[in-house]
Amino acid sequence: MPIIKSAKKRVKVAKRATVRNVKTRRTFRDAIKSFYTKPAAKSLAEAQSELDTAVKKGILHKNTAARKKKQLAQEAKKASVKQTSSAKSATKKAPAKKTTAKKTATNKTTTKKSTSKKTVSTKATAKK
């Protein structure tokens, strides 16, 4: 057992993370098994979604999940399961949104202050 306080905390954190990781791993494995037992568009979408969740939480590497999703898609094609729009959207990435930067009120006030300082400094040099 650890003696140092921070080491004790790491043991507790590791236990919580292990429970969380086991749950995530179990859910994506169950989803894959349910697809193989009875192939359907809904179970395919669910399995792909669970794989994406596992990647997001760091349980699976993204290439591993991509390989498994490809294998699921091949099995679906063999079983003549048509992908629904939700299953297709789960496999594709959403396009990036464009954002425009706007000036905030703080930027406006700082520019006003800096211009007033410049005018003061030019007047001071003119008097000298």
Identify the notable features of this structure and list them briefly.
Methane Monooxygenase Hydroxylase, Chain G, domain 1; about 75% helix; about 130 residues; mainly alpha
How much strand?
under 5%
Distance, first to last CA = 76 Å
Largest sheet: none
**CATH level 1 class label:** Mainly Alpha
Question: Structural class per helix/strand content?
Answer: mainly alpha
- Going by CATH, the homologous superfamily would be Ribosomal protein S20
Helix proportion: over 70%
Helical stretch tally: 5
Describe the oligomeric state of these chains in a short phrase: single chain
Which blocks of ≥5 consecutive residues have pLDDT under 50? none
Order of helices and strands: HHHHH
- What is the annotated CATH architecture? Up-down Bundle
Q: What's the shape?
A: flat
How does this model look, in words?
The structure is a single chain. The chain is mostly helical and 128 residues long. It has a single domain, classed as Methane Monooxygenase Hydroxylase, Chain G, domain 1 (Up-down Bundle), CATH 1.20.58. 75% of the residues lie in helices and 0% in strands. α1 (5-37) packs antiparallel against α2 (41-56) and α2 packs parallel to α4. The longest helix has 33 residues, at 5-37. The mean pLDDT is 83.
Helix/strand layout:
Blueprint: H1 5-37, H2 41-56, H3 62-78, H4 85-91, H5 105-127
Short overview:
This protein is mainly α and 128 residues long. It has helices spanning 5-37, 41-56, 62-78, 85-91, 105-127.
